[in-house]
Specification:
Strands 2-1-3-4 form a four-stranded parallel sheet, sandwiched between helices. The chain is an alpha/beta fold and 328 residues long. The protein folds into three domains: 117 residues, NadA-like (Rossmann fold); 82 residues, NadA-like (Rossmann fold, 3-Layer(aba) Sandwich); 77 residues, Rossmann fold. The chain binds 1,3-dihydroxyacetonephosphate and iron/sulfur cluster (SF4). Iron/sulfur cluster (SF4) binds next to loops.
């Protein structure tokens, strides 16, 4: 069907209003409904699916996404996806990972300039220098890296599988780039010698152990932290895991009050599913994730642009460590 012909709206307004009302004012939802309906039409016309990270706002995750998850789950979804067009609501390295796994598909980004402080902190030359200083140690690239860095690496990991990936290499010493806090987490979990780079997530590094102490004394909440948080935060948390693992923990344990030490939208997205859980603020925003908007999703489907392209010779080398991770 040509773009512009309007099939009946395919979203259930009542159901959506009910779910989003847990986290958004009714007026904001009402304003977004025409955009959500237009996106639903365009998805049908283009044969597109929308995959979103857990840090996207509820209007995207609950309103239009076909799949929502952490970085590992997004990669697995992409690898198995048969839609010809995939819109990635996440930062650039996430869209690039999807393109590496789906080279024959149109992978569209609502904002290809959406970066990540971790991905920006390490270059291919850094990886080569680390290898030269640590001969024989395999390189694990966090998925929060560019294709050029992945191409220099032996295997990828995400925060959901970093310790398992390190153990799978059957060696006592590994190089892990770029996040020094994730590297510390893996070293403590596995007992391995983990050589790290100096990268940090600009969002998670803002949390401190003193913040956790203050909140715990005051309110006695269960504390969940992402492994990109500093070690003193991880040490004080009741659970440390990827965004997907935190969502699973909350779904299973349903604590009454939670201090969720990660990006702000994560709590909103869990609250849509579990309104009975009280989330204590503060939270820290990732401005890169927030540069992806509902209007941006609509625009990229109206006029398919912002296609992710990767030089084929680089892509072949960058794909291998991701596929090796997914094969574990
Ligand atoms: P997850 O893989 O846990 O979703 O984390 C991605 C990320 O960018 C966290 O800051
Ligand atoms: Fe990157 Fe941190 Fe934003 Fe995640 S939260 S995308 S690691 S800057």
């Amino acid at each position: 069907m040509p773009v512009g012909r309007r099939p009946p709206p395919s979203i259930d307004r009542g159901d959506l209003m009910g779910r989003l009302a847990r986290v958004l004012p009714a007026a904001e939802i009402a304003l977004a409904l025409p955009v959500l309906e237009r996106i639903a039409e365009l998805k049908a016309v283009r044969g597109a699916v929308v995959v979103a990270h857990n840090y996207q706002v509820p209007l995207i995750t609950a309103g239009t996404a076909d799949f929502v998850g952490d970085s590992l789950a997004m990669a697995r979804f992409a690898a198995a996806c048969d839609a010809p067009v995939i819109v990635v609501c996440g930062v650039h390295f996430m869209a690039e990972t999807v393109k590496l796994l789906c080279p024959g598909k149109s992978v569209l980004s609502p904002n290809p300039l959406a970066g990540c402080s971790l991905a920006a902190s390490v270059t291919a030359a850094d990886v080569r220098a680390l290898r030269a200083r640590n001969p024989g140690a395999p390189v694990i690239a966090y998925v929060n890296t560019s294709a050029a860095v992945k191409a220099e690496s032996d295997i990828c990991c995400t925060s959901a599988n970093a310790a398992a990936v390190a153990v799978s290499l059957r060696t006592s010493r590994v190089i892990m780039v770029p996040d020094r806090h994730l590297a510390g987490f893996v070293a403590r979990q596995t007992g391995l010698d983990v050589v790290s780079h100096a990268g940090e997530c600009e969002v998670h590094v803002k949390y401190t152990g003193a913040d956790v102490d203050a909140y715990r004394d005051e309110v006695g909440a269960v504390v969940l932290a992402h492994p990109e948080c500093p070690a003193d935060v991880q040490d004080r948390a009741d659970f440390v895991g990827s965004t997907g693992a935190m969502a699973e923990y909350l779904g299973v344990h349903r604590p009454r009050r939670v201090l969720l030490l990660t990006e702000c939208s994560m709590a909103d997205n869990v609250a849509v599913l579990h309104p009975e859980i009280e989330f204590l603020k503060p939270c820290n925003l990732c401005s890169h994730m927030k540069s992806i908007t509902l209007d941006g999703v609509m625009r990229v489907l109206e006029e398919p642009g912002n296609r992710i392209e990767i030089d084929p010779s680089l892509a072949d080398r960058a794909r291998r460590p991701i596929e090796r991770m997914l094969a574990l």
